[in-house]
Amino acid sequence: MKAADLAVRDVSWTPAKSPQPVLHSTTFTISAGRVLGVVGPNGAGKSTLLRLLYRFQKPQTGQVLVGGQDIWSLTARDAATRIAAVLQEQASAFDLTVREIVRLGRTPYRSGFAAAGKKDENVVDGVLEQLNLLELAHRDFSTLSGGERQRVMVARALAQEPQVLILDEPTNHLDVRHQLEVIALIQKLGLTIVVSLHDLNMAARVCDDVLILKDGYPQGFGPPQALLSDQLVTDTFQVVAQREHLSLSGASHFSFSLPE
């Protein structure tokens, strides 16, 4: 798997029969191998942007380019070899084993109903090993914990051998330990990654760049330490935000309160 640049140029999207865009003109570029965090209040347009990035919806304006190529100039099969997504919605009880689910990631590389070949199995084995899932390979998906399920879904995406990985709220509904496991996984994948997060402090800790959205409008894009000012966070989330610098680690942490 080799990471690629992701360029988003003037993309916007408006639902059918609606006069108001859900996502207004948005432009940014992520260099290969960097992690972008997309943050903002509920209804900000985060999920809409992600759907445009993994080619579920076509933007009404603009382009999404991976490695300089417009994803809508590709067939769906070819696009699936460049972009993979892990969504919030998971089936609660796949009647499949972990290995069978991860093998589904090889579908874009097979013709018709052809069975998985040796290369496919080698890729599956490699991904299972990378994500420490070999011991769970023959377990039924429904018997796994939330954190284990999330790792399996990431493994299925990695089996596509994508250049760009999209993660929609990957820590949602996970306990603290499993959240930390998923974040550690994100940091070591080495792909170009776009991840939507509710936790602003987590985004600042994990991401190389942050895109802030509010009411479908971009509010800012850049490295979190430079971009995330008290005022910008306060205005975006309608809370009183104050960044505190931690003397021992040198990191910073936002605390929040309601406005009086």
TrEMBL record:
PROSITE patterns the UniProt entry points to: ABC_TRANSPORTER_1, ABC_TRANSPORTER_2
Enzyme class: hydrolase
First and last residue of the signal peptide: none
GO molecular function: ATP binding; ATP hydrolysis activity
Keyword field: ATP-binding, Hydrolase, Nucleotide-binding, Transport
InterPro entries named among the record's database cross-references: AAA+_ATPase (IPR003593), ABC_transporter-like_ATP-bd (IPR003439), ABC_transporter-like_CS (IPR017871), P-loop_NTPase (IPR027417)
Enzyme Commission code: 3.6.3.34
Domain ABC transporter stretches: 6-240
Alphabetized PANTHER family for the sequence: ABC TRANSPORTER ATP-BINDING PROTEIN, HEMIN IMPORT ATP-BINDING PROTEIN HMUV
Family to which the UniProt record says this protein belongs: Belongs to the ABC transporter superfamily.
Protein name: Iron(3+)-hydroxamate import ATP-binding protein FhuC
Gene it is expressed from: fhuC
